[in-house]
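Translate sequence into C-alpha cells.
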Amino acid sequence: MIKDEFERLAILEINSVQALLLFNIGENEVTAGELKTRGYYQGSNVSYNLKKLVELGYMHHQRSEIDRRSVRVRLTEKGRHVRGMLTGLFARQAEVMERRGLINTSGMDEINTSLRRMERFWSEQIRYIY
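Result follows.
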C-alpha cells in the first residue's frame, strides 16, 4: 500500500519500511535501541535504515550528551512531510473502510485497544525472560 502510493507520487529514494520508521518515530526523539526495545524493528535493520534516512535528509542525528555511544534521532521537515503523507493515506483508507461498512470508528477503537493490550503483554513477557 505504501509502496504503491510512493510509486504513484514518484518517491523513490526511500522504501516503505523506512517510511513506516518515520511514521512510528513521529515527533519523538529516540535511539535505535529504543526502537528495538519497542519491538518495531530488528537491530541491523534499524541501524541501516536510520543511517540511510539521515544521509537522505529525513532525520537529524545527534550523539547523546550522557552516553556518547548512543545517537538520538528525530525527523527533519522532509521526514515530517513524509509522515504527514502517510497520515493522510491511512486516514483516507479508514474513511473508505467505514464508508463500505467494513469497520466503524468504535470497532477500530476496540481493535486498537486490544492490540495495545497484546503489545503490553508481550513486552512484559520479554522483560521477565531477561
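Note: The first strand starts at residue 30 and ends at 31.
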